[in-house]
TrEMBL record:
Name of the featured protein: Peptide/nickel transport system permease protein
Transmembrane segments: 7-30, 71-95, 107-126, 132-151, 195-217, 238-259
Location of this chain's protein in the cell: Cell membrane
Lipid metabolism found in the keyword field: no
Residue ranges of domain ABC transmembrane type-1 in the record: 69-259
Topology term for the membrane: Multi-pass membrane protein
Species annotation: Bauldia litoralis
Homology family: Belongs to the binding-protein-dependent transport system permease family.
GO cellular component: plasma membrane
């Protein structure tokens, strides 16, 4: 077993919980508007008055870090659920219908999966005009094959078990079997995929924000904060990029470790 897979599940889960709690409760402890400019404190280094320093127009970096964390984590959940629900439905329909329906749906998923996810998300964001929510739509579309193909394989695997045959022989309807037999058994595998997609969504949306196709200036978002701080990276103002970068690193690493830990705990099935 690899070192990553030996990490207990509760550690990355606790890390994500602490990060989420910090960005939610943080404004109560640090009630500074992330968009308020203070031209008397431009590019101030981290210190007692500004624990993470200030940016090029005097905005408090800690306040923007907390606001960006709330946005990034919330959007990660939206992408995760936005890909899970339609993707799982497509997978169930393909597995149960079979034949031409299965072929058409899976070829459609293959067509989406043929594009590198980040390029597909960029193409959708550009086609819809740019901005945070168009980027979200692009990332959701790129996650559909992950969920659809996994759900299809899980339904086919579970439907081959004898307890399903027993339920059918007792007169159980297909809807009852899917709800009470297939869904509980597929939930663990889909949970692993959700954790992986959550981390993927955060880093992809930050990347889109970095290249100007996601959240836009002056929105407090980690990718945008890194973009704004890059011009000062070589002049000593390290805090402008380091802190949002650490936020992304912690969130994505914890999500990936959680996915690996869940996969190992649930029998080694990969998302």
């Amino acid at each position: 077993m690899s070192i990553i897979r030996s990490v207990p599940v509760f550690l990355p889960l606790a890390l994500l919980t602490v990060l989420a709690g910090a960005v939610v409760v943080g404004p109560l402890v640090w009630p500074i508007d992330p968009y308020t400019m203070d031209f008397a404190a431009i590019l101030a280094p981290p210190g007692p008055g500004h624990w993470m320093g200030t940016d090029s127009v005097g905005r408090d970096v800690l306040a923007r870090f907390l606001a960006g964390g709330r946005l990034s984590l919330s959007v990660g959940v939206i992408v995760m659920l936005g890909g899970l629900v339609p993707g799982a439905i497509i997978g169930v329909i393909a597995a149960r219908a079979g034949g031409i329906v299965d072929m058409v749906l899976m070829r459609a998923m293959d067509s989406i999966a043929a594009f590198p996810p980040i390029l597909l998300a960029m193409a959708v964001a550009i086609g819809l005009g740019g901005g945070l929510w168009t980027a979200v739509i692009g990332v959701i579309i790129s996650t559909l094959p992950f969920f659809a193909r996994l759900m299809r394989s899980e339904v086919l695997r579970i439907m081959s078990h004898r307890f399903v045959d027993a339920a059918e022989s007792m007169g159980a309807t297909p809807a009852f079997i899917l709800l009470w037999h297939v869904s509980p058994h597929a939930a663990s595998t889909m949970l692993v995929q959700c954790a992986a997609v959550f981390g993927y969504a955060i880093i992809t949306l930050a990347g889109l924000g970095f290249v100007g196709l996601g959240a836009e200036v002056p929105t407090a978002e980690w990718g945008v904060m890194i973009t704004e701080g890059m011009k000062y990276a070589l002049t000593g103002q390290w805090w402008l990029t380091v802190f949002p970068g650490l936020g992304i690193l912690v969130a994505v690493s914890a999500a990936n470790l959680l996915a690996d830990g869940l996969s190992a705990t649930m029998g080694g099935r990969h998302a």
